[in-house]
Write a structure and sequence with these properties.
The protein is about 5% helix and about 65% strand. The protein is mainly beta and about 375 residues long. The strands form 4 sheets. Strands 2-3-7-8-10-11-12-18-19-20 form a 10-stranded antiparallel beta barrel. A two-stranded antiparallel sheet has the order 1-9. Strands 13-16 form a two-stranded parallel ribbon. Strand 11 (about 215-235) and strand 12 (about 235-260) form a beta hairpin. The longest helix has 16 residues, at about 1-15. The mean pLDDT is about 85.
């Protein structure tokens, strides 16, 4: 117990030495217990272009997957800027969401993991006649034939240049108290990876018009410089705003594909294709693909098989990290509200994906 007390005193002294006490107050009581209510929203947009040379037309189609807003209630327990949390979801079919964070005078680290599946989708098409230039748009809300699985992992670290006078933690986990208004430039690094998967063959229609793609995985590393500001209008109250645009310095997209025995093109006047041979992977007339219109697949002869996945590398994808926070401290208690918005996007030769990830959180805590 004596050694534990000595270690605690050493950490407290070190924490106070790193900040300017005129701007940042390090509370005497280092332990905190926080009750939290959180709502997390995710929106995934998947876009492809399809050419119809027989009709001299082109179509852009978009699938939008938006699961229910994930509401949860839980608690956080920690010492200074580091601790652990547990939460219970209040929303059915919203997937699973995990998070961890730690902060110091000049650094911060966040981890988020989200996994969910959904059949709710919005399908939008924009058909373009290449002869006349006329465009026709149509939006349809429907249920996928089989669930789409989406997973995202987010790792973020940042460095605060003016860590002696400015603290992100003052607004987001209340490990310290901002006493005077101050701002700082921040250097941030993010590792982001995500995947979506609708490989169940019940979704074959979207595989056909999506160039055979049924799963995509992305690994993305981003660097950025942002700015944060803490406004202290009165004692105990702090309002924070932070914006950080980032650019990807590593962007790897791997797409998994099916090959199949049908092709999206106008039907031929005479159907002389006969039966499909699964061993030779040809129709009776020797051709490998039978032209169809999208809703006209003969399921009894529909065949598909895996082919080598494509791997694309690109750079300079621009993403965005926005945060807002407010906290009020009195005695050994505090309340707070925080929000964060992230946008990630990636593409390859066949399409592009935009992911919008945001949360809003209310908290009430006590120092012990």
């Amino acid at each position: 117990m004596v050694r534990l007390h000595q270690l605690q005193e050493f950490l407290d002294t070190k924490a106070k030495a790193k900040v300017d006490p005129h701007y940042i107050e390090v509370p005497e009581k280092p332990w905190r217990v926080i009750l939290r209510y959180k709502e997390n929203a995710v929106d995934v947009d998947y876009t492809h272009s399809v050419d119809f040379p027989g009709y001299n037309e082109q179509a852009d189609w978009n699938l939008c997957f938006e699961p229910p807003v994930a509401s949860s209630i839980g608690f956080w327990v920690g010492y200074r800027g580091t601790g652990f949390s547990y939460s219970k979801s209040l929303t059915k079919n919203a997937g699973r969401y995990y998070s961890f964070s730690t902060t110091g005078a000049k650094y911060g680290f966040n981890f988020r993991l989200r996994r969910f599946n959904t059949t709710d989708a919005t399908f939008s098409t924009t058909e373009r006649n290449l002869d006349t230039g006329v465009e026709t748009r149509k939006d349809t809300t429907f249920n996928m034939f089989a669930p789409v699985w989406i997973r995202s992992v987010y790792l973020n670290g940042y460095y605060v240049f003016n860590g002696r006078r400015y603290s992100q933690a003052a607004a987001y986990n209340q490990s310290v108290i901002q006493r005077r208004s101050a701002g700082s430039f921040l250097l941030g690094a993010t590792w982001y990876q995500s995947s979506f998967d609708y490989s169940d063959i019940s979704n074959f229609l979207f595989m056909i018009i999506g160039h055979g793609i049924y799963r995509a995985k992305v690994h993305q590393a981003n660097l950025g410089v942002g700015y944060g500001y803490n406004w202290v209008p009165l004692r105990g109250l702090v309002v924070n705003a932070m914006a950080m645009p980032t650019v990807s310095v590593y962007n790897r997209v791997k797409t998994y594909k099916y090959e199949m025995n049908y092709d999206v093109s106008p039907k031929e006047p005479v159907d002389n294709y006969g039966d499909w041979n699964r061993e030779t992977r040809t129709w009776a007339n020797g051709k490998s693909h039978k032209p169809i219109e999208m809703a006209d697949v003969n399921n009894s002869q529909f065949d598909y098989w895996d082919i080598e996945p494509d791997v694309d590398y690109s750079m300079f994808r621009f993403n965005l990290d926005l945060r807002l926070g407010i906290a009020y401290n009195w005695s050994n208690y505090f309340i707070g509200a925080q929000a964060q918005y992230n946008n990630f996007n990636y593409k390859n030769d066949n399409g592009k994906v935009n992911i919008f990830d945001a949360y809003a959180r209310l908290s009430f805590g006590v120092r012990l």
